[in-house]
Amino acid sequence: MIKLNNFIRVCIAIVLILTILYLGSQVTFIFRPILSLITIATVPLMLSAFFYYLLRPLVNIMERKKMNRTLSILLIYLVFGLFFVGFILGVWPSLRDQFINLLNNAPDLFVALGKQLQNLEQSGILSQFFPSDTSPSSQITDYLNKGFSVMTNYLSGLFSVISNITVILFIFPIVLFYMLKDSGNFGRKLVSFTPKRFHKEAAKVVADIDRSLSSFIVGRVLINLALGVLMYFGFIIIGLPYALLLTVIAVIMNFVPFVGAILSAIPIVIIGLIESPSIGIWSLVIILVAQQIQDNLIAPYIFGKQLDIHPITTIILVLVGGDLAGIIGVLLIIPVYMIIKIVVVKIYDLFFRKKWEKA
């Protein structure tokens, strides 16, 4: 009888939740302004959290050196401002020239690509990898069109996210300043919302989440920078055109697990293939070698066992995140999964482990 009553309670709770969701879907005009506000604030908050975990160790070091925390943050802002000016004056002109040159030469590059594919087809190299009843060049063209379509959608989503640049530039530095200044207060506020008897466990959960996010973000940046250095020097050695531009694109897109690495490889291999088949092959070899060094040497050293996520789980999460919220979902899904996993494991340890192990 007790089990039946519990079952009825669960069913009633599910019905009530579904009813609330249905009623909410009928009055979307009430929630639309809230969703718009969340959409506008998402990118500045993401950037603030990203740079918070990058800069917090430096701020803490400066504070331990008896420097005022606010002054430390302002000094870091000044240094970053100088680096930004140096980037605009030193690196940006080269990037801009390569980008403009690539756009201007795009029609000629596609013509050259078509000729290279025809030459490879006539030489019989491509026929070894495709069925005899199909045209290898047309199949490769179809694959490239699909790849460019996916990459265009990815880039258009990325540009739509950062389109409201004025709001981002205004909100992001302010939010980041207060996050760095009040470091730790947010976690203590979260703990205070839990019942007193769970404060100790809640503090551990907050600390674990903070440690995991810090390791993930800082580690991801270090790994991508290392990947960029390896790829750039490799591209310079083989004489790949637009080496700096393609490396920057690869580093940025590599923040998206799996999908970003594949998409960034497409333009690199195409540009190499247009230059010559050997450069196209060598550019692919450099990408694969750099990825292997990243995955098997650099990533285990930086992450250790802290990022315990199976590759299949990562792929599923990226697909789900992209389907739910586009590029924002793809970027946020791994950190959100890490937070949920830590919370669920702690809840299981506190409330269910002993009961289920005794059963």
TrEMBL record:
The chain crosses the membrane at residues 7-24, 30-54, 74-95, 154-180, 221-242, 248-274, 315-348. The keyword Mitochondrion does not apply. It holds the Pfam family AI-2E_transport. The keyword Cell membrane applies. Keywords: Cell membrane, Membrane, Transmembrane, Transmembrane helix, Transport. It is a multi-pass membrane protein. It is found in: Cell membrane. PANTHER family: PERMEASE PERM-RELATED, TRANSMEMBRANE PROTEIN. Belongs to the autoinducer-2 exporter (AI-2E) (TC 2.A.86) family. This is UPF0118 membrane protein YueF. It comes from Paenibacillus segetis. The lineage of its organism: Bacteria, Bacillati, Bacillota, Bacilli, Bacillales.
